[in-house]
TrEMBL record:
TM stretches of this protein: 6-26, 38-58, 78-101
InterPro entries for the chain: Brnchd-chn_aa_trnsp_AzlD
Name this polypeptide is given: Branched-chain amino acid transport
Xref: Pfam families: AzlD
Superkingdom in the source lineage: Bacteria
Organism of derivation: Lacticaseibacillus manihotivorans DSM 13343 = JCM 12514
Protein keywords: Membrane, Transmembrane, Transmembrane helix
Length: 107
């Protein structure tokens, strides 16, 4: 077996363990209420970071600029999220909005 294949398999194992072990540990113990409350904000923080990062374009040595395509596609997605409160609806509306923006060259 080549070293590359062994490396890929070991990286896959480590990645899998990193994702599975925390769930097994949390399931076996009871977490304090303050920790559960703190962890409830993690998905919102991650989604906000990903959202803002996709709206900005990095320019070395300058302020970031706004990605107009992503900004325009995010408007109907945000409205759909506020109305439906469904992540699936947000994703579908965002994809359709981006497809329409690119198809008609709006940005």
């Amino acid at each position: 077996m080549s070293k590359v294949l062994i490396t890929i398999l070991l990286c896959g194992l480590v990645t899998w363990l990193i994702r599975v072990v925390p769930f097994a540990l949390v399931k076996a113990t009871t977490l304090p209420k303050w920790l559960l409350q703190f962890l409830s904000f993690v998905p919102v923080a991650i989604l906000a970071a990903i959202f803002v990062e996709s709206l900005l374009v990095y320019h070395q040595g300058q302020w970031p600029s706004v990605n107009t395509e992503n900004l325009l596609a995010s408007i109907p997605a945000i409205i759909a999220g506020v109305i439906s409160k469904s992540l699936l609806v947000v994703v579908v509306v965002g994809i359709v909005a981006m497809a329409l923006i690119r198809a008609f060259g709006l940005a």
